[in-house]
Amino acid sequence: MSRLSDDKLREIVARFPTTRDEDWKYTDLSQARDIASRWLDEKPATAASALQDDAAAITSTIDAAWLVIADGVLQTTQAPDGVSVDRVDDIPVGDSALAEFNAALVRDGIRIRVSGQVERPIGLLLLDSAEQTSVAQAYVEVEFQNGASGELIEYHVSRGDADQYANTIVTLHVSDAAIASHVRIQDRGRNHLQTSKTRVSLGKDARFSSASFDLGGGMVRNDIDIDIANTGAEVSFDGLYLAGDGQHLDNHTRVDHRVGPATSRQEYRGILNGRCRCVWNGKAIVHEGADGTDADQANHNLLLSEKAEIDAKPELEIYTDDVKCSHGTTVGQLDETALFYLRTRGLDRTAAMQVLTHAFAAGLVSRVPVEAARGAVSALIERRLEELAVTIEEDPS
Predict the structure, then answer these.
(1) CA distances, 158 to each of 33, 164, 218, 293 (Å)
(2) Cα distance from N-terminal residue to C-terminal residue, the chain
(3) Are strands 122-129 and 83-88 parallel, antiparallel or unpaired?
(4) What's the rounded Cα separation, in Å, for the pair 59 and 126?
(5) Most exposed among 57, 286, 343, 369, judged by the fewest C-beta atoms under 10 Å?
(6) Over the stretch 277-321, which tens digit does the pLDDT of each residue have?
(7) Each residue's pLDDT tens digit, 144-203
(8) DSSP codes, 306-326
(9) How far is Cα 247 from Cα 6, in angstroms, rounded to an integer?
């Protein structure tokens, strides 16, 4: 049930970002506004129980203690020792229309607290159905308490042929001397939309490592904001996006180095084919007084079709002198010499393309920070790369 009137909700939808906003110049949310408006008019009922088989099939692929949120409702929890899970009633309104929309419509916000050394990963499955026009919200807070260590797997999936829009906010706080590992998998239906916001804050000497994998979705926008306000923090995060015909995948990252010494590393890679578009905007801000900062960002893209488009923008803002910072981006195509060599070794063109695209992605896959998820991630990427290679073979342009 909404915390606001329908008229107020429509006013919030009307304030969703547009391409006139600098941070959204390449990503159009008009379809999300349309779905949200129609959903407000129709107010269809949801049927989360129909997703039980899908949830079981997904959770069986990764050994984790799973929390399942189906159509916005918390269905199952398997909290391991050292982990507490509670529902959140006081959803923060936030500072954007998307955050307001989330706070007004979240059905089951959850708060997870990790204490001590937790061996088994926490799995968070966000599963949405689209038998009819639907809108889903999710809000999750995760706190790794002082000296704690743990792993979190975040898995986004949707089912059904109708229009569907999901809007997710995840907040991670890694306290003093805590160690947190995080994997996010997004494999939504190709006709579905998602906006997500991930906020990360770090305590003194905290360690945070993360990897994100975008495989599905028709229009997906991911924002990750990392705030380093304590000395000795170390952050590393990777991202891999695989886009085919009709997909639009947008990743915006921001790291604020407010004090030093502290370290941040990010590397995003994209493989694109067909008529698709991807966006990567990585920003690192070294604030005045953050001496000893070490910040590095890299983005590499492989375009398999002349119809594919990438908009890449690395940004560094540095307001102090004693720093070590670097950034860079590359865009290229498959090496025809390498393809020819592989074909002389007995591979057909499709298989040769799969070998080269797999090699391009393999560096990030090998660094998946949650070992329990590595096999599932590898299988999903193999499947998607096979789809992309077959499409290239059918349409060389």
Answers:
(1) 19, 8, 11, 40
(2) 48
(3) unpaired
(4) 11
(5) 57
(6) 999 999 999 999 999 999 999 999 999 989 999 999 999 999 999
(7) 999 999 999 999 999 999 999 999 999 999 999 999 999 999 999 999 999 999 999 999
(8) TT-EEEEEEEEEE--SSEEEE
(9) 31
